[in-house]
Design a protein that fits this description.
Layout: H1 9-23, H2 32-45, H3 51-60, H4 62-72, H5 83-93, E1 101-106, H6 112-123, E2 129-135, H7 138-146, E3 148-150, H8 159-165, E4 166-168, E5 176-179, H9 181-184, E6 187-191, E7 203-208, H10 217-230, E8 231-239, H11 247-250, E9 252-256, E10 259-262
Helix pairs in contact: 3-4, 5-6
Bound molecules: S-adenosylmethionine.
């Protein structure tokens, strides 16, 4: 019988430290077994004998680094997450300037958030918008670009949007639905690490939801500084419901629960 391959505490700490440096994501000590289970697949795929060999491989191979980041970060997301924020969006769109709107779904995972924003704007009669969806996971971005989701995910989408923007697959595509082309064309998915400077500086709206929770306070402040710089004056920042920012430091005003306005 083959000896069992285990991730030692020292190896876990080395991988956790590497992930923190790359992404800002903190892995608590309780995650050791989770890391072992998720990375075991990569050991097998690469026919590596143990985690020491895997760690060496990880550090030397850029492709493996992308895969490991994808496996070790949490991508849970769904359409119209925190529905009340989409109600605020729907209401605020009526007061937004009559020029093309730029929206950023930062840490968008597989794109459900970006499509929820696009559906809300389109149904409000604003088709003059662009959404940028960014994430550190390349696999998530590929799925976002495709704009196809399992039919079960549609349960979260209100009927009015389903009828207008979601197309059920038939035949070999049964069990999936596709977002309307008019929305796919308005969303660009790009790789971006939140630890680095933001991709543009003129967003009217930024959604940065359910990602700050994985960072420590220093990283949160650094990310928020980048984000605030990218927001236009009077622009709105949407955070996850469990997340807050220090207002006095950032030039933000609390607008609604979880929503902030940039003030000069
Ligand atoms: C839980 S999902 C949140 C998705 C969506 N915003 C939502 O609220 O449903 C968190 C996402 O943050 C991404 N992420 C983690 N660290 C990141 C970083 N440093 N830069 C960019 N994205 C990151 C992960 O890949 C993951 O897809």
């Amino acid at each position: 019988m083959e000896p069992e391959v285990r991730l030692s505490t020292a190896e876990f700490k080395a991988i956790a430290e590497w992930l923190y440096r790359q992404t800002g994501v903190l892995l608590s000590d309780q995650k050791q077994i989770m890391v072992q289970t998720r990375l075991m697949r990569r050991l097998k795929a690469r026919s590596l004998p143990n985690f020491a060999a895997y760690t060496r491989y990880l550090l030397s191979d850029p492709g493996e680094r992308e895969l490991a980041i994808d496996l070790l970060t949490t991508h849970e997301t769904f359409f119209f997450r925190d529905t009340h924020q989409f109600k605020i969006l729907e209401e605020q769109v009526q007061h937004m300037p009559m020029r093309p709107l730029a929206i950023w779904s930062a840490a968008c995972s597989t794109g459900e958030e970006a499509y929820s924003i696009a559906m809300t704007l389109a149904l409000s009669g604003r088709m003059d918008f662009r959404v940028l969806g960014t994430d550190i996971s390349l696999d998530c971005l590929t799925r976002g670009r495709l704009g196809e989701y399992p039919i079960e995910a549609s349960a979260r989408i209100p009927e009015v949007y389903l009828k207008k923007f979601c197309w059920k697959g038939v035949g070999p595509r049964q069990g999936i639905f596709r977002m309307d082309r008019s929305l796919i064309e308005r969303i660009r998915f790009e790789h971006h690490n939140l630890l680095t400077a933001s991709p543009a500086a003129d967003f009217d709206l930024i959604f940065l939801r359910n990602v700050l929770i994985y960072f420590d306070e220093g990283t949160r402040q650094r990310v928020i500084r980048h984000i605030v710089r990218s927001l236009r004056n009077n622009g709105l920042l949407f955070l996850g419901t469990a997340e807050t920012v220090r207002l006095e430091v950032n030039g933000l005003q609390s607008f609604r629960p979880g929503v902030y306005r940039k003030v000069s």
